[in-house]
Amino acid sequence: MNSNLQRGINTSLIHLVLGLYTLVALFPIFLILVNALKTRKGIFNDPLALPTTDTLSFEGFQKVFSQSDFLLYFSNSLIVTLVALFFVLLLGAMASWALSEYRFPGRRILTLFMAMGIMVPIRLGTVSILELMVSLELVNTRTALILVYIAQGLPLAIFILTEYMAQIPKELKEAARCDDVSEYRLFFQVVLPLTRPAIATVAVFTMIPIWNDLWFPLILAPGEGTRTLTLGVQQFIGQYVTDWNSVLASLTLAVIPVLVLYLFFSRQLIRGLTAGAVK
Amino acid sequence: MIKQRGFPFHILVFILPGLLIYTLFSAWPLLDTLLLSFFEESGDQRVYSGLANYRLVLTDPDLSAGFWNALGNNGVFFLVHVLVQNPIGLLLAALLSLRNLRGVRTYRTLIFMPTLLSVVIIGFIWQLILSPLWGVSETLLGYVGLESLFDAWLGKESSALLTLALISVWQFVGIPMMLIYASLLAIPDELLDAAHVDGASPLRTFWQIKLPLIAPTLGLVTILTFIGNFNAFDLIYAVKGALAGPNFSTDILGTYFYRTFFGFQSSLGSSTLGATVATLMFLIILAGVALYFYGVQRRLQRYPM
Amino acid sequence: MKPFQLAALVPLTLALTINTALAGELNIESWRVDDKDLWEKEIIPAFNKAHPAISVKFNPTAPTEYNASLNTRLAGGTAGDLITCRPFDIALELYNKGNLTDISTLEGLKSFSDVARSAWQTDDGKTTFCMPMASVIHGFFYNQDIFAELGLSVPETEADFFTVLDKIKSDGSYTPIALGTNDGWETHQIVYTGIGPNAWKGEAGRKALIGGTAKMTDSGFVAPYAQMAKWQPYLSKGYQSQTYGDSQNLFALGRAAIYPAGSWDIAYFNSNADFKIGAFKPPVASKGATCYISDHTDIGMGINPASKNRTDAETLLNWLASKAFAELYTNKVTGFFSLSDHEISIEDPLAAEMISWRADCESTIRLNAQILSRGRDDLETAYWNAGQGVINGTVTPEAAAATIQAILDK
User: Fold this and answer.
1) Which residue among B63, B131, B248 sits closest to C242, beta carbon to beta carbon?
2) Contacts from A28-31 at CB under 8 Å and sequence distance 24+?
3) Chain B residues with CB inside 8 Å of A272's CB?
4) Which domain holds residue C31?
5) CA nearest to B41, candidates B279, B271, B300
6) Candidates B133, B241, B267; nearest CB to C242
7) pLDDT band at C161 (very low <50, low <70, confident <90, very high)
8) Which residue in A has a C-alpha nearest to residue B114's C-alpha?
9) What Cα–Cα distance (Å) separates residue B304 from each residue in B188, B291, B293, C243?
10) Is B28 among the domain residues?
11) How far apart are CA C246 and CA C239, in angstroms?
12) Distance between CA atoms of residues C283 and C292, nearest Å
């Protein structure tokens, strides 16, 4: 009975610690949401206060929808992120499989070469990338962004996925090969389903920087029709005056799709990490 | 055994599409620019200048101070992450992985939320919270009677870097938490049951069984933190601008590179010097990664699992 | 090739060619995100009344990204036809790199004084590469309600200024000066070069510094720092992390009495403050002394040599020199004052007050904007750090000046 009591205390303590940290994580987000709904004066007179009848304002949201092509920017961001994500995962998985499964000359060098991409800030290559896009006539297209994001996301994807694929039990592969299954079918029907959890991990780590990126949209696709959400928000950040109502409103809305994607992948994520982390 | 089927076309099919896109849109532009570090601009022409740029960045009495300052600050930035972010991540993961705990999914998702946010919004909200003008921090600290401790942390040379590092910890703690949590989950139940039967306390089980088993993950988390920190840029840029003030006290390699490469205010950027800084960043990260693979990881993997 | 494939290809290729060179379309590069609405709703329609065939697009980039993204786009060949120019050395460097066109022969330039043009000319004054658009004036705003409540009068001399500050401080209800040092630039661009010209005698001091006959360590250049060092007690608690936006809010919410201002702030306070605002010039050392103001040529526009629509671009630049534009810009972008010689009427009282200083005082531009900043070191940044350090109390005025002089000596 004593141990029961103790367990109860322990559990409450654990919830206390986790609850406190959750509070730390959420409090600033709570402030963002609260202040997105307030007038500018309301924000700065008392940032902690909930919106009152005096300070409640949907001005930010109204402006976002009336002044900018919010839905267009939103769909641009979504298209770019999803398409890039899809190809990072597919091509990354394929390359990782080749690098981890087959022994061929130059494999090590190739692995190292692919890993280079996570060690250099990709901004560095901007001018060369832009020149390339100009010569391919891809400036101001979503394709340009997608291509760069695929290139940017592949190294980390391969870094994580090769580790994981090396651990797929030999028996499974052998069994498939004995049945004379082609290497392609082996990959798509055996390996890919097995790696689904790891792929979810990579997906989460890949999509966040793409969704939030400002630099490449600014350089490669600043045109009205191809503008992404993060770039669209910039119009509220002025030289001397920043329209925080609108910035908070649009960025609050911008969190929703990544959150949905995150929830979608996180089911797989834990399983992916679990299987990937222990040899 | 893999059957001999002549030339292994399938390897090409698997590897080429990714390799092509990566080479064309990332590796080649990067290499092309990194090579600039061996040139200098004279008029419209670029002239080969050997290691002169490196000498300039590393030893020139005027220019090198900026680089070493940024490197030092980056070291501090990384240290804060290792000493604060990863232990917190470990603690949270350890608690979350305890058996029979309710609400794990909710905690996990909520604690991961900050990682999803755009840095523009994070910069704004933390400036608002930490600003002495609008009273958020003082009110909060007032609840626990600590308001006298509060200061303009983001604005002072002595505390700005530390404050920014902690904001970054707040933003990214979800990543080590998830990685460590997953590897804790993967520990075979039999091991833990055995410990339980032997009467080991949960704390002892953690220190003597779990921690050694997840050591490789801790190593991976550390090296990912290292790579992330030495490439960091966005948060400091959003809060402090490219100038990384006050008086460069929050300047890290990312912001230093940005100023060198693209210029700032009255100084115009130099692509050759910028490339030099970037190459140095690359070498630093490469050295860290190599150290990890050859020094740490090998030793860890020898641990009997 | 099958016919339907061909049919599909034709619009595609058409679309591509149209994208690359649409005759009569001009794209403007600018950092003035704030003016986007104004261009789209007022300026471009006004321009199109005179020139209906030319379609203009205003594509601003957030100011923090402007330099980096413009340079990248210029290098990649995707920059717009018209480039908004920052004054002096920054634009000059663009011209020297071949990124701005020589526009010396444009008719419109005749509407501007030599001083206005000098911001966008080569050192010998022979070549002009940007059409001047507007300048900004620096001084102080004050909250008239607070001044009335505390029975304060507008300070004229430095001594008056500090008396006023002391009174506000001893009353205790308001922050005397709304200023922070988090961002750094205000301490230099608004404060040091705003109050300084009185001490270094405007253009005379500036030219002496360029000519090397004066040094930063001379009393005329140290004195403004010495004055700034005395400001610390009058700022808000925690001013070290107060951003420029914070200062604006502090003043707009009526919590601070005095605001060191650039004229551009008029627009913001007109829409965000619900009390009457007055303006006063930087205080002079002794009553009756000549006053000097910082009337900084701040913004111009030039042509990208890669533009395919040079004639249309020139038409637009000439139009920027017209009276119609001067009136529109000065009155709509309140706080940016047209530089052309046309007589225009100014509607905003605060703007009219500031512009009237041009008649009372000698004008000068920001101290280091011309020629001085050409060294390898970033002088502008050094000045920011100096201003920041002096107000924070981490550097003495003398040491700050000496640091800058060391850079100038190189």
Assistant:
1) B131
2) A28/B114, A28/B122, A28/B125, A28/B126, A28/B129, A28/B170, A29/B113, A29/B114, A29/B117, A29/B125, A31/B125, A31/B128, A31/B129, A31/B136
3) 182
4) 18-135+296-351
5) B271
6) B133
7) very high
8) A25
9) 14, 22, 18, 55
10) no
11) 9
12) 9
Between helices B253-262 and C63-76, what is the axis angle to 10°?
50
Tens digit of pLDDT for each residue in A154-166? 998 998 788 778 7
User: CB of C103 within 8 A of CB of C272?
Assistant: no
Integer Cα distance of A143 and A122 in angstroms? 18
What CATH number should be reported for the domain holding residue C118?
3.40.190.10
Residues C128 and C157 in one domain: no
Residues of B in contact with A15 (CB under 8 A): 103
Contact across the interface for B152 and C239, Cβ inside 8 Å: yes
Contact C373/B at CB under 8 A: yes
Find, in chain A, the residue whose alpha carbon is nearest to that of C15: A137
3-class secondary-structure state, position C58: strand
Task: Please tell me the distance in Å from A131's CA to the nearest CA on chain C.
Answer: 5
* CB-based contact, C69 to chain A, within 8 Å: yes
The answer to whether A234 contacts chain C (CB < 8 Å) is yes
**C63·A239 Cβ contact <8 A:** yes
Residues C32 and C122 in one domain: yes
Helix H or strand E encompassing A136? none
Minimum distance, in Å, between the CA of residue A49 and any CA atom of chain C: 16
The confidence score (pLDDT) of residue C376 equals 66
Instruction: Please count the residue pairs, one from chain A and one from chain B, whose beta carbons lie less than 8 angstroms apart.
Output: 248
- The count of CB pairs under 8 A between chains A and C is 76
Rounded Cα–Cα distance for residues C350 and C344 (Å): 15
Q: Which of B44, B246, B248 sits opposite C240 (nearest CB)?
A: B246
Q: Nearest-CA distance from B52 to chain C in Å?
A: 16
pTM recorded for the entire structure: 0.86
Of C76, C253, C272, the CB nearest to A131: C76
- Bridge partner list, C278: C142
Q: Answer yes or no: do C95 and C155 share one domain.
A: no
A25 to chain B, closest Cα gap in Å: 6
Question: Are C268 and A44 within 8 A, CB to CB?
Answer: no
C384 contact B CB<8A: yes
Same domain, yes or no: C160 and C309: no
Q: What number of CA atoms fall less than 13 Å from residue B241's CA on the CB side?
A: 23
B130 assigned to some structural domain: yes
Nearest one of A114, A103, A108, A113 to A150, comparing CA atoms = A114
Cis peptide before B246 (omega within 30 of 0): yes
Instruction: From the options 2.60.120.10, 1.10.3720.10, 1.10.1060.10, 3.40.50.2300, give the CATH code of A67-277.
Output: 1.10.3720.10
Structure ipTM: 0.85
| Residue B167, domain extent | 52-301
| Residue C121 DSSP SS3 | strand
Report the CATH number that the domain containing residue B132 is assigned in CATH: 1.10.3720.10
Each residue's pLDDT tens digit, C276-318: 999 999 999 999 899 999 999 999 999 999 999 999 999 999 9
Q: Are B218 and B259 in contact (CB under 8 A)?
A: no
Whether residues C263 and C332 share a domain: the answer is no
Domain total for chain B? 1
Q: Rounded distance, CA C215 to CA C221, Å?
A: 8
A125 touches C at CB < 8 Å:
no
Average per-residue pLDDT in chain C?
89
Q: Tell me the average pLDDT across B1-17.
A: 75
Write out chain C residues lying below 8 Å of A219, CB-based: 69, 72-73, 76
Q: Which of C351, C373, C389 is the endpoint of a domain?
A: C351
